[in-house]
Design brief:
Structural class: mainly alpha
Order of helices and strands: HHHHHHHHHH
Helix content: 55-70%
Pfam families: Sigma70_r2, Sigma70_r4
Largest sheet: none
Number of helices: 10
Family: Belongs to the sigma-70 factor family. ECF subfamily.
Shape: elongated
Strand content: under 5%
CATH superfamily of the largest domain: RNA polymerase sigma factor, region 2, helix turn helix motif
Number of domains: 2
GO molecular function: DNA binding; sigma factor activity
Keywords: DNA-binding, Sigma factor, Transcription, Transcription regulation
Radius of gyration: 25 Å
InterPro entries: RNA_pol_sigma-70-like, RNA_pol_sigma-70_dom, RNA_pol_sigma70_r2, RNA_pol_sigma70_r4, RNA_pol_sigma_r2, RNA_pol_sigma_r3/r4-like, WH-like_DNA-bd_sf
């Protein structure tokens, strides 16, 4: 009798559990890894917009974002066999590819002057309406842009990557070739310098 119970338990353990069924994305990825082009197209359809938005928020240039998105998916296709399943998060995997390409791009295309519109995200201000309020806000933005222009090149790059491109400390460190601790120090000095350069009406991030 004990032996029968053991065999029954082993037989039951060998059956797939309902909770271990692969999710639809994992099934599509598995098919794509086996050479199913249509399955890869469906995976692309699920995540293409997400990848584009991720990149665009950081490069702020539609054409560049489209180019980097295309390169992201080309690399994903070429390296699809390296993706581990089941249990792997394909969304995180493809986003990592996009992040690395974006950081490489930003590292190679740092510019000291930024369009005035990009500086807007650094200013904490109430919604404005009317020509007078709009004029005041524009003066505020111009003051901020002028203040950033007075920072050192590395401080400008740090502010650009951290607040305009919304990169993390670690991503910024990678882009600048510095340690996270060094980036924090540069960021602190840059914000302190800006607070001393700008009018009191400009509220800087903490």
């Amino acid at each position: 009798m004990p032996a029968m119970r053991v065999r029954a338990a082993q037989s039951h353990a060998g059956q797939p559990q309902s909770g271990s069924m692969l999710d639809p994305v994992s099934v599509l990825v598995a098919r794509a890894q086996a050479g199913d082009a249509e399955a890869f197209g469906q995976v692309y359809g699920r995540y293409a917009d997400q990848v584009f938005r991720f990149i665009y928020r950081r490069v702020l240039d539609r054409q560049v974002a489209e180019d980097l998105t295309s390169e992201t998916w080309l690399r994903a296709l070429r390296n699809l066999a390296a993706f581990r399943r089941p249990g792997g998060d394909f969304s995180a995997w493809v986003t990592t590819i996009a992040r690395n390409l974006t950081i490489n791009y930003l590292q190679a295309h740092q510019r000291r002057e930024r369009p005035l519109a990009e500086v807007h995200d650094l200013v904490s201000a109430d919604d404005v309406s009317g020509p007078e309020a709009a004029a005041v806000q524009r003066l505020t933005l111009e003051a901020l842009a002028e203040g950033i222009a007075q920072l050192s090149p590395v401080q400008q790059q740090c502010i650009n990557l951290r607040y305009l491109r919304e990169l993390s400390i670690e991503e910024t460190a990678h882009a600048l070739g510095k340690t996270p601790a060094a980036v924090k120090a540069v960021q602190h000095k840059a914000l302190k310098a800006l607070r001393g350069l700008l009018p009191m009406t400009v509220v800087m991030p903490a």
